[in-house]
Amino acid sequence: MNFKKVPLTAIRRLSIYARMLAGLEADGKQQVSSRDLGETASIPSTQVRKDLAYFGQFGKRGSGYSVKELGFRLRKILGIDRAWNVALVGAGNLGRALFSYPGFSKQGFRIVAVFDNSPGKVNKSWKGTRIQSIKELSKTVREKNISIGIVAVPASGAQEVADEMCKAGIKAVLNFAPKRLKVPTGCMQANVDLAIELENFSYYLSKLR
Amino acid sequence: MNFKKVPLTAIRRLSIYARMLAGLEADGKQQVSSRDLGETASIPSTQVRKDLAYFGQFGKRGSGYSVKELGFRLRKILGIDRAWNVALVGAGNLGRALFSYPGFSKQGFRIVAVFDNSPGKVNKSWKGTRIQSIKELSKTVREKNISIGIVAVPASGAQEVADEMCKAGIKAVLNFAPKRLKVPTGCMQANVDLAIELENFSYYLSKLR
């Protein structure tokens, strides 16, 4: 299996399937069909089977998948069968919300360091995590083996933070600032634009009028 | 053009193009090719042309698109050429961050009402917006012509809030709680799972090891 050939959208759907499976396992379910797996997320069963087929053979024709085994394998494929250390830059409202977001640690993403450049925030503490000066980024990334960075600063400072992160050896940057960033080769980046979901709504709502 | 036939992923990409165009317009650019439009977002030019073709003829073969005109038309298609009133339920850290998120109002989404069920929060004020009891939801949705709701409460209370929203006449629910919700026919819903983006990273980072 050549992992480069798997479309990003399929990886995204694997995450959704992994969540469904965790829910089913908690409910005590043992087997699940591709139809049931896709249904809650409005994904056709043919798509579910195609997505899984990128990664080999799962389950038996006609009897569906073992909830436990498929869940285990998807978590392994997604790299969430282990913990990842994350640095958060930006200790404002959004940073605070992300720091407290239970969905990250649930999937093994641990925010182990928080940075800001405001003297009023540096050395304050969030649940035992000291807010550090951005100048300490490189050193902390090495010491704490951090591979992922979250940018939660205003748009105007976001590119600079991303540059610092990649220079410090962070391999993947998740950006919440409403601005597209450029990162050097060897560093990945993704934008979370919270308004895009609302625009899906406004598109459909406009048609209803 | 039958709007139901346009895939959701295409609408999402239209939002990305609209952002690119706004940036280009601010930079004083007049024309743009489908290749340039897709490039920053790593979308192939064939896909850009296909996405736009759902909505008719834009630009001229060979000379690209007028930045201003295409931007105007995409904003109209996406329904962001006007304002939408939004209700936010959940006045915790995440709610506060979403309330302050500049990306919403920039695209015309105005959080005009905030609700919580905690007596310690109700009647407090955020930049002039009084935090209301969830009991006032229906009345406020009518009075303020609110069509979109944002759920920023813990997972355990999310379904109940979504139910209340749909009952109150809200047509689209954006859920930030790490839990899939069910909404009745006539009400749309979308989940924002902030960890999914990180899982794209962990998938690729696992392969690098």
Task: Provide an overview of this structure.
The structure is a homodimer of 209-residue chains. With 209 residues, chain A is α/β, with parallel strands linked by helices. The first copy, chain A, folds into 2 domains: 3-77, Arc Repressor Mutant, subunit A (Orthogonal Bundle); 84-195, 3-Layer(aba) Sandwich (Rossmann fold). Helices cover 44% and strands 18% of the residues of chain A. The first copy, chain A, has 9 helices and 9 strands. In chain A, the strands form 2 sheets. Chain A has a 7-stranded mixed beta sheet, sandwiched between helices. Chain A has a two-stranded antiparallel sheet with strand order 1-2. In chain A, strand 7, helix 8 (155-167) and strand 8 (172-175) form a beta-alpha-beta unit. In chain A, helix 1 (8-26) runs antiparallel to helix 4. The first copy, chain A, is globular and about 60 Å long. The mean pLDDT of chain A is 90. At the A-B interface, helix 1, helix 5, helix 6 and helix 9 of A face helix 1, helix 5, helix 6 and helix 9 of B. Chains A, B: Pfam families: CoA_binding, Put_DNA-bind_N. Chains A, B: Residues 16-55 bind DNA. Chains A, B: Keywords: Cytoplasm, DNA-binding, NAD, Repressor, Transcription, Transcription regulation.
